[in-house]
Amino acid sequence: MQIASLAKVGLPNVSTSDTIDSTFAALQRAQLARRGSFTLEARIAQLDQLRDSIKRHESNIIAACAADFRKPAPEVKLTELLPVLQEIRHTKKHLRKWMRPKRVAASVGVLGTKSYVRPEPKGVCLIIAPWNYPLNLALGPLVSALAAGNGAIIKPSEMTPHTSKVIANIVAETFPPDLVSVIEGDAAVAQKLLALPFDHIFFTGSPAVGKVVMEAAAKNLSSVTLELGGKSPTIVGPDANIKRAARNIVWGKFANNGQTCIAPDHVFVHVNIADQFNEALKTEIGRVYGKTPEAQKSTADYCRIVNRRHFQRVSNLIDDAKNKGARVFEGGVTDAEENFIAPTLISNVSSDMDISREELFGPILPVIEFDDIDLVIKKINDNPKPLALYIFDKNESFATDIIERTSSGAVGVNLTVVHFLHPGLPFGGVNNSGIGAAHGEYGFRAFSHEKALMEDKHSLMHLLFPPYTAWVRRLIEAAVRILG
Questions:
Q1: Does the predicted model carry a pTM greater than 0.70?
Q2: Parallel/antiparallel/unpaired status of strands 344-347 and 364-370
Q3: Distance (Å, whole) CA 138 – CA 468
Q4: Residue numbers annotated as active site
Q5: CA dist list (Å): 29 to 22, 175, 179, 442
Q6: C-beta atoms surrounding 86 within 10 Å
C-alpha cells in the first residue's frame, strides 16, 4: 500500500522503514523510466490536476487549518491557497521558456563549437514542510519540483496533523504514487528519509534543524535548498509614515500569530517618533484584533500558537524579559487552555534577555529606540544574516544606505512580508537564514541540474593535442599569450 493513502484509510501517521524504502525505490525506478518522456505538456497537465485538486479541497483545507491552530479562513486563503495557486499559474505561463536549452556564445578559445545549457530533472526529491504554513510550504516547492520534471516525496509536519491528512489526500488523488507520495510521521520518520540518497532535499524550518538536514544530505552528497529563518529586523526611520508603518508591521507580525519566518522580529524606531509610533501600534492592534484581551480571544481573525510546547516557549520569553526589566506596554495576556497569547509589545529591551537572542516566532514585538543609525546597522551586522529586513522611511537615501551596508535574504521598503507573494522574486536567505532560493524560475532552477552541452562543428582545438611537437608547442604558447 502506498503511504499516500494512509490518511484516507485512517491508519496511524507513522511510516515504517520498509514502506519508506519501497516508496523511495518506486520513485527511483519511475524517474529513470520517465527520462525524456516527462514533456512540457505532461508537466503542465500534472500542475493543472494539482490546481484542480486544491480547489476541490478548499473547504477541507480551511477546516484543517482551523482545527490545527484556529487559523482564520481568510488568512488560509491569503497565505496558504493563493501562493500555491499563483505559483502554478506563473509556472505554467513561463515553463516553456524555462525548459528551453539556452544557447551560449562560443569564446575565442572554442571557436567552431556550439554550446548550450540544458536544464534537466535532478531526480527524486524530498520536500520537508514545516507546521506554520503547512499547505503552502509543502505544495509550493512541489510545483517547482514537478515543473523541473522530478518525482517527489513530501514529509508534512506532524504538528499540524489535520492539514497533513488533507495534503496526503490531495496527493493521493492527484498523482501516481511513483511520481509524488506523502509520508507522514514524526522526527524519527524524517531521519529515516534523510538517510536515503535523494537527488535534492528542500527543507523549510529552523536554522538548527537546517544544520541537521545539511549534515545528513552531505553523507549522500545530495544538493539542498534550505529555507530557514532568524531574527528579521525592522527599522522605522525619523521620516517614516507612522500610520502606514504601524499597519504593515502589525499585519506582518501578528498574522498567523507571529509564526512566520519572515515576520518582523523586532523594531528599531527613531527616538523622535517613538512615542507616536508606539501609540500607532497599539491603535492598530485594537483596530484589527480588538482593544482588550477578551476581544482578541473572541475574534475569528486571530490565530493561535500551534501547540502547548510552543505556547510555553513563547510565554517563557515574555516572563524572562519582564524579570530582567522589560516593560510590556501592550498585551502579555496568556491562556494555556487555548494556546492564546495576546499581541504583545515590549520596550526597555536589553541584550541579556532571551527575546534579544532567540527567534521569537510568536506574537511578541520588542520595540527598541535609536538615534544613531550606524549603531543599528552594527547591531544587525553583528548577528547572523536575517531572512528579511524591513525599512520604513520616506527618504529613499535612508533606505538605500541601510540596504548597501547590510546583508539579508530580502529587503522590504515600506512593507513587510509581501515580497513572498511575488513569484518573480527569489525567496531565500543567506547563510544562517538559508541556502538557495525558491519561487518561479528560481524554484525551477533549484530542482534542475543545468547540464553543459557542447558540440564540435569545425573547431581547431585538435591542433593543440599531443604529440607536443615544436609546432604544437608554439601554437599553445601563442594561445596562452593571446587568450590568457
A1: yes
A2: parallel
A3: 57
A4: 227
A5: 11, 16, 10, 27
A6: 17
